[in-house]
Amino acid sequence: MHALEQKILSEGIVLSDQVLKVDAFLNHQIDPVLMQQIGKEFAARFKDAGITKIITIEASGIAPAVMAGLELGVPVIFARKYQSLTLKDDLYRSKVFSFTKQIESTIAISNKHISSSDKALVIDDFLANGQAALGLADLIHQANAEVVGIGIVIEKSFQPGRQLLLDKGYRVESLARVKSLENGTVEFVRD
Amino acid sequence: MHALEQKILSEGIVLSDQVLKVDAFLNHQIDPVLMQQIGKEFAARFKDAGITKIITIEASGIAPAVMAGLELGVPVIFARKYQSLTLKDDLYRSKVFSFTKQIESTIAISNKHISSSDKALVIDDFLANGQAALGLADLIHQANAEVVGIGIVIEKSFQPGRQLLLDKGYRVESLARVKSLENGTVEFVRD
C-alpha cells in the first residue's frame, strides 16, 4: 500500500535492526486520514469473504480495525489485555507471549458478541512473531466461529510470524511488508 | 444526540445505580457507524474552535477520537496508561485516580507530538468523576498548549465530573447526559 509505505519512510524511526517505531501515525499519535485509507484497503482485500465481525486487540489495533469495520459494515470487538470491572461476563481467554516485552499476558473477549455463525477478520497493527494474531484467532475458534483472514498494517517479514500463520492455513494480508531494517533503513518486500 | 441515546436505551445495560455497561457498542464491541456519527457530532460542535489536535486515552477513547479527528482533519494522540518499550522519549506524565477501580495510574504522552501552538480537544468515552479528563488536560497544559474543550460520549450527570470541569473553566460537550440509572432505568438530562 503506497501511502502507508511512504508514511513509514517519512515518519517511521528505525530504532534497531528489529524495531520500527511508528508512534507518529499509528501507535501513539494516529493519522485518521491514513487510517481511513487503511480501512478501505482492508475492505477491498476482504470484500468477498463474507466477513461479519472484526476482532482486534487494544490499543493500537483499534483505529485501523474501526475504519475497516466502517467500510465493511460490520462491528469490531477489541480484545482486552486484562479483565476490567464491568466486563464480568463469561469470557473467551487466550495467553499471548510478547517477545518484545518478554511477558505473557491474557487476552479476552466476551462470549456475548461473537457466535458460531460469525466469519471473523483479525486485524492488528504489527505482525512480528505472530503470537497476538494466533491468540486472537484462538479466541475466535473458542466461539466456534470462522477465521476468514488476518489483516496486518505493518508486517516485519524478516520475523517468523507470517510463515507461522500461513502454515496454520490462515490467509494473511499485510499492507506494508518490511523486508529489512538493517543499517537504519526501511526496505520493503517487492513481489 | 438522538442516535446515541437510542443505542444506550436499546443495548446499554444498567448494572447498578452507578454503572452503565455499554460493551455492546463502545467499550468492548464497537459500532463503527455510530462512531462515525459521534465523530461528526463532535466536529460540528467544535468546528469553529480552531482545533489542531485531539487527545484521548486508551482504549475506549480511541474510536470516537479517531472519527472526530477524521472529520476535523487533525491528528489524534492517545495517552498510554503505562510506558511501553518503544515509547522512550521524554514524556508528559500525569496521575489519574480511578474511583471505579480504586487505583491510581500514570498516563503519559510523548512531548514529540504536541507543542505550545496546539489547540487541543480532549475526547473520552465516559465522564463520571472527571479525573481522566483532568489528567489529559494536565498533559496538554504541560506542553503549554491550549485546552479548547472536552468532548464526552456519555456523561453520568449525577456524578461530580462535569461540574468539576466547568468550575475549572473548561467547555464540556457531552453527547449523551445520563441523569439517573435508578431502578434499572436510564434517564437522560433534558434541557
TrEMBL record, chains A, B:
Keywords: Cytoplasm, Glycosyltransferase, Purine salvage, Transferase. InterPro entries: PRTase-like, PRTase_dom, Pur/Pyrimidine_PRTase, Xanthine_PRibTrfase. It is an enzyme of class 2 (transferase). Its EC number is 2.4.2.22. 5-phospho-alpha-D-ribose 1-diphosphate binds at A128, N129, G130, Q131, A132. It catalyses: XMP + diphosphate = xanthine + 5-phospho-alpha-D-ribose 1-diphosphate. It is found in: Cytoplasm. Pathway: Purine metabolism; XMP biosynthesis via salvage pathway; XMP from xanthine: step 1/1. Xanthine binds at L20, N27, K156. Its main location: cytoplasm. Gene3D superfamilies: 3.40.50.2020. One of its GO terms (molecular function) is xanthine phosphoribosyltransferase activity. The keyword Nucleotide-binding does not apply. Belongs to the purine/pyrimidine phosphoribosyltransferase family. Xpt subfamily. Converts the preformed base xanthine, a product of nucleic acid breakdown, to xanthosine 5'-monophosphate (XMP), so it can be reused for RNA or DNA synthesis. Homodimer. This is Xanthine phosphoribosyltransferase.
